Amino acid sequence: MCVIATGSEQQIQLTDQKQEFNKRPTKTGRRSLSHSISQSSTDSYSSVGSDSSEDESSPRDKAQKTSKGFSDFCIKNIKQADFGRREIEIAQQEMPALMVLRKRAGGEKPLAGAKVLGCTHITAQTAVLIETLIVLGAQCRWAACNIFSTQNAVAAALAERGIPVFAWRGESEDDFWWCIDRCAGGNTWQPNMILDDGGDLTHWIYKKHSSLFKRLRGIVEESVTGIYRLYQLSKAGKLCVPAMNVNDSVTKQKFDNLYCCKESILDGLKRTTDVMFGGKQMVVCGYGEVGKGCCAALKALGAIVYVTEVDPICALQACMDGFRVIKLSEVVRQVDVVITCTGNKNVVVREHLDRMKNGCIVCNMGHSSTEIDLASLRTTELRWERVRPQVDHVIWPDGKRIVLLAEGRLLNLSCSTVPSLVLSITATTQAMALIELYSAPEGRYKQDVYLLPKKMDEFVASLHLLTLDAHVTELTDEQAKYLGISKHGPFKPNYYRY
């Protein structure tokens, strides 16, 4: 899985109010910017990251210890642990299924002996998952899968509990891979399970620690990008451990990808740009579950939404839902916002960026940062100007500028927050997948990629119904016999499309 920023939000006030943002400024130097910090903007970021006034020195250069002398971690500031603990406690209230798992399986310790190496977004919700795995008997070490999404206070809270964490908000690319390598533990710690989001950790272990990779008992992956990498390894005959495809489980696809993005796309855009959606022309690249959620949310607020697609089935769905399906090149000159959510690479290239109008907002809701061709923007002719946390203006020689969010990385986890209830569904699915792979008898799973058993998907969903005060109808014996299924499920065949 497949949304997070903090610090003081800087509001731009144009010195000349008559100059509208969609008109090109003159070429004579930078416009003067006056910055103001409002209480509301500070509050909006306080729970999802660290304040911009934090020490900017690299955590790699600092030796830190917890109150108990634990030092096997690398985070921004261990002194934020108490605040992070309160964030985790808030998240627990909206993550009922993991709390139920702790109560039901905590005594049995189904993950006793499991050494889980994790690489996901490090947020309060992920912390609830990590601590649940530990209650279930696992040992854990963790790194971040995104350089912008780590909540520093939460990382501090995990470290204070004695959990090795290697992550901080705003890592460089070098820091990112250094953290993954430190997390892997080298010869001092031998993991037997991997929980990955994006495939970077799996790829690193496969390339750098091949002997360790061969000794793994299983891999759980939750993103489109990571699953694609696993299927490539499997097709090439190089996947020597069983892997569980959580991304394509129903609970992940529908709730994390569809319903979560339906809410978080608006949150991310509002926090970073204060954009008004009504009447704006927006193009959403990709009409999978993420694209469907984004389009539905934007349309509901009055935006004019276009869709690009390569898959004729998804394209037809977009048409039936009332969206105009076009090629990006057909509308790129006129749209106000471009959102990518395909999981592919080079969806928006320099040719598109050159043709965008002044003030066009460009962002990514897919996992990978490859959807927007950022390399083509890092040239001497273009100037970058940071105007807010996670907001850059990329300025052309003629004065035109586009607004790039989170440097093309995942918008919702980089610039806003994700509903804890949705992440509870995904996290519970991940926990069940780890338990299934780790406790499965030898021979059940070969060296291939598997979907989570349907029965477990239904179990994860049922754990969340009580929170919503929902009561499902129970089949009678006669009805179950008529349908040819067990009255206790699974209720749908694997090929059923929800």
Explain how this protein is built.
The chain is α/β, with parallel strands linked by helices. 38% of the residues lie in helices and 14% in strands. It has 18 helices and 17 strands. The chain has helices at 39-46, 81-92, 96-105, 124-135, 152-160, 173-184, 200-208, 210-214, 224-235, 250-273, 289-300, 312-320, 328-331, 350-355, 411-415, 420-439, 454-465, 477-483, and strands at 11-13, 34-36, 115-120, 139-144, 165-166, 193-196, 218-221, 243-245, 281-285, 304-308, 324-325, 337-340, 361-364, 383-388, 391-395, 401-405, 449-451. The strands form three sheets. The chain has an eight-stranded mixed beta sheet with strand order 11-10-9-12-13-16-15-14, with helices on one face. α4 (124-135) links the parallel β3 (115-120) and β4. α2 packs across α4 (124-135), α10 packs antiparallel against α16 (420-439) and α16 runs antiparallel to α17 (454-465). The longest helix is centred in the middle third of the chain and has 24 residues, at 250-273. The protein is globular and about 65 Å long. The model is unreliable at 1-53 (pLDDT under 50).
Strand order of the largest sheet: 11-10-9-12-13-16-15-14
**How much is the average pLDDT?**
87
Residue share in β-strands: 5-15%
Distance between the amino and carboxyl termini: 19 Å
Major sheet details: 8 strands, mixed
> Helical proportion?
25-40%
So how many helices? 18
- Which consecutive residue ranges, at least 5 long each, have pLDDT under 50? 1-53
Rg (C-alpha, Å): 23 Å
- Helix/strand-derived category reads alpha/beta
